[in-house]
């Protein structure tokens, strides 16, 4: 059973998968902070849905790539107590074949997934450690495990996140904190739908369909629960059998 009102922060919570994760954590009894950078209205709409359904949530807005702004925002959250569940979901695509990839494309993708992970996770660690309970779940990608043409930057960013997951899990395992990564394949969201049509999905995915944001959220919800207390340092694929 989950602890009632454990405070959870979901970065990129205003997007398709992020919104599903926020709703799933709320149903499990967490107070959910729905993070957004530019789309504050979407984050607030998700908060309204959660509250209407009987849950507890609040919207927070900051730029994960801005270290100072992120630390200020996190310190404000910590004024009300530790955040014990962190879902590092925020990420972006900026695709191009590598010979034609600009420095801006490379740095933009790496900055959000890798530096953003550090900026938001590091200041939350000591307060979490003091409670001797925590769940950190990082959203990775099948691209980090199998590669994907046109996504060297994205694969590198998510691959770094996988490595950070394993290393951090070793540092905090004895403190009741688990650190895992979830690596989705083709998921039916605005981002995924634009890249693959039904014929391509049927050719790539053994299950012949895209996954849903809710299926990803269910896995994240389990990893955030006390039932997953002995699972840490893992990169768990959810991809319809692609690997």
Describe this entry's structure for a reader.
The chain contains nine helices and nine strands. By secondary structure, the protein is an alpha/beta fold. It has a single domain, classed as 3-Layer(aba) Sandwich (Rossmann fold). Helix 2 links the parallel strand 2 and strand 3. The chain is globular and about 45 Å long. The two termini are 32 Å apart.
- Number of H- or I-type helical stretches: 9
Q: What CATH architecture would you give?
A: 3-Layer(aba) Sandwich
Helix/strand-derived category reads: alpha/beta
Sketch the topology as an H/E string, one letter per element.
Answer: EHEHEHEHEHHEEHHEHE
Mean pLDDT: 94
Q: What is the CATH topology assignment?
A: Rossmann fold
- End-to-end Cα distance, whole Å, is 32 Å
C-alpha Rg (nearest Å): 17 Å
Largest sheet: 7 strands, parallel
Shape: globular
The residue ranges in which pLDDT falls below 50 over 5 or more consecutive positions are none
